[in-house]
Design a protein that fits this description.
By secondary structure, this protein is an alpha+beta fold. It has four helices and nine strands.
């Protein structure tokens, strides 16, 4: 009889102590199963959008901007004869919206010769002014060539920069704006 009481008491202790441990183990296992799904839902940043676009259409990024949860990326082929308009979803899926294969390579000569890529220009701008790269565009108006980069600050304001395509030197351009449109 004493033996049964000891066995019952031991079983009770195992259940009392083991219950929370088993629940914690189950919760950890459940978190491990759902963690990759949470990572997959995370928004793709500008660098990731550029990489995804270039995998779909190799070349040089001419411009990139975010509209809602979709990145719009324009890529020029390495020979300058082609141009693709791509959309990159937040999950990294790339859709080709438009494509032209009859471009004049001379039109993109400066862009193709630039030592600083769009991705490097975004990194330089964010290093100069903390925030998130939101848009980048090659600009060759008025004979001057540069990357125009928009950096969105944590407070919603946008800081604009010009990045030299040869040296990656960053200079502020224009004025800051308050863009709280959640684009």
């Amino acid at each position: 009889m004493k033996r049964n009481v000891y066995i019952s008491a031991a079983a009770s202790v195992v259940l009392i102590v083991g219950g929370p441990v088993a629940a914690a183990a189950a919760a950890t296992a459940d978190t491990a199963r759902t963690a990759p799904a949470a990572v997959a839902r995370a928004d793709l940043d500008a660098q990731g959008a550029a990489e995804a676009a270039l995998k779909k259409y190799p070349g040089v990024v001419e411009s990139l901007d975010k509209d809602g949860s979709v990145w719009h990326v324009d890529v020029i082929s390495k020979d300058g004869k082609g141009h693709a308009e791509l959309e990159v979803a937040s999950n990294g899926k790339v859709t080709q919206v438009g494509k032209d294969t009859n471009d004049d390579p001379g039109e993109y000569k400066a862009l193709l010769a630039a030592k600083v890529t769009a991705q490097q220009a975004m990194k330089a701008a964010v290093a100069a002014h903390p925030g998130t790269a939101w848009a980048v565009e090659w600009d060759d108006d008025d004979g001057a060539t540069y990357w125009h980069v928009e950096v969105k600050e944590s407070n919603g304001k946008t800081w604009n920069a010009h990045v030299d395509p040869t040296t990656a030197k960053v200079t502020a351009s224009g004025s800051d704006s308050n863009d709280n449109d959640n684009d």
